[in-house]
Amino acid sequence: MPMATEATLTKREEEKLVVINDCLSRKITKAQAATILGISTRQVKRLKSKVRESGTLAVIHRLKGRQSNHHIEETTKDKALTVIKEKYADFKPTFATEKLAENHNIHISYGTTRLWMIEEKLWKPRKQRKATYRSWRPRKDYYGELQQFDGSYHYWFENRFVDADGYPIEVCLLASIDDAAGKITRAEFSSNEGIIAVFTFWKGYIELIGKPVAIYLDKFSTYKINHKAAVDNKDLLTQFQRAMGQLDINPIPANSPQAKGRIERLFKTLQDRLVKELRLENITNPDDSNKFLKEIFIPKFNEKFTVIPAKEGNVHRPLLQGEKEDISHIFSIHDTRRVNLDFTIQFKNNWYQLTEIQPTTVRPLMLVLMETWLDGSVHIILKDFELAFILLPEKPKKQRIKQPIILTTHTLNYKPPPNHPWRRYAKTTP
User: Fold this and answer.
1) Which H/E stretch holds residue 52?
2) Helix boundaries (H) for 281-320
3) Based on the structure, what is the number of domains in the chain?
4) Does 411 lie in the same domain as 386?
5) pTM confidence score
6) I want to staple 50 with a disulfide (CB 3.0 to 4.6 A). Which of 37, 58, 233, 343 is the partner?
7) With contact defined as beta carbons under 8 Å apart, do 29 and 12 qualify?
């Protein structure tokens, strides 16, 4: 191993050599040298002996110029970079490090992977942005005390799930995360973030896990309301608040994305990790991905990222017997309509005829509740009674007879006076 020379001395080592030489020439004492160098007098004595024997090399660290005991062989680096370029080129360093260890038995640190990926221009370090001041909100104490909920439109399947024209389809991922534990409590793919999709999500959640104390959800921005796949979002917050109120769950609308930062950060992580996991598993549609989410991804994710809540206990509440019986009525879209004089009701381009025998008295012009269930069926409710009806056939459209266009002829009634120029001209010509 080549030894270091004077040319490799650092500024600190040069200063140390000057002080020890001054001590050897009796310009300063050992105590003064120890004070200047910030070491003990015993160490100064040892350095003096080494400088007498070895000269300049005495102040240079013996490990200088030698490889670290943790040095990674070039073959390992080449192998790791080859795998990253072939399979994980668009992975973030942390995720790439996990996959190298999990699938290829290459165990290196996140920092090493990051540096290598930066060298190969596979990763661009993020610039530090000026931070916006926001006050910190502590986590809730109990599991089930607060669920943060949102939906994320994204090309989760990249180019593997396309429409008839071959363009990638944007799919919505609905997810909830527990505020206290940071645990994904439920996640599933849906075509949109409309009322039916959200109600289906929470109906399944409550039947499986129970009723949380509160749900933190978005106020639904203009983008989500106007999204091409979401046709019924405008009434979602009102319908959701009504349904949660019937179940004694407190819905809390968030005024900004930062207010429900836990679910926003979750989607940022999933848009990186889940997209790659679906690619590695070659999953090409939402149905297969929902099974993968439930059986593999979520348990694995929670095992890695879940934290222990501040207080032990699960505050989810089971459905009451009455709530179980009314669950389909609760998770339905509610509208009101008025009964016509002939006991018909018009609702969404359909006509419904109430039958003569009903469980309660029905009079014309009464307001009734129209419930659209998750299965698409329509139910008419009055005073907690379900009314009997038949669906009428479509009313015949009125025939519009186009009137023929009548062309009117205009006669020229204007007669030029005798002194008109062309009359005078006609008289003078032979």
Assistant:
1) helix 41-54
2) 286-292, 298-305
3) 4
4) yes
5) 0.67
6) 58
7) no
